[in-house]
Amino acid sequence: MELEDGTIVSCDRFRVALCTCRRSRRYPWCDTSHRDRTRER
User: Fold this and answer.
1) 3-state secondary structure of 37
2) With contact defined as beta carbons under 8 Å apart, do 17 and 25 qualify?
3) What is the distance, to the nearest Å, from the Cα of residue 33 to the centroid of all Cα atoms in its chain?
4) Is the pLDDT reported for residue 39 higher than 70?
């Protein structure tokens, strides 16, 4: 996958989810860390 800045990232998992909240520690891959964090306003 190519990011906006041109960086190419890959993942060795069979199934992945893309992070849309930008809270993931493994961005651009979702690590479900959004579940543990409070929502910012």
Assistant:
1) coil
2) no
3) 9
4) no
The residue assigned the tokens 């479900």 is 32
pLDDT, the chain, mean: 83
The helix/strand/coil state of 1 is coil
Residue 28 clears pLDDT 70, i.e. is over it: yes
| pTM of the shown model | 0.54
Phi–psi pair at 33, nearest 5 degrees: -65, -20
Whether the CB-CB separation of 26 and 32 falls below 8 Å is answered with no
Cα gap 23→27, rounded to integer Å: 8
Tokens standing for 26? 């493994």
Q: How many CB atoms lie within 10 A of CB 20?
A: 10
- Local structure of residue 8 (DSSP, 8 states): B
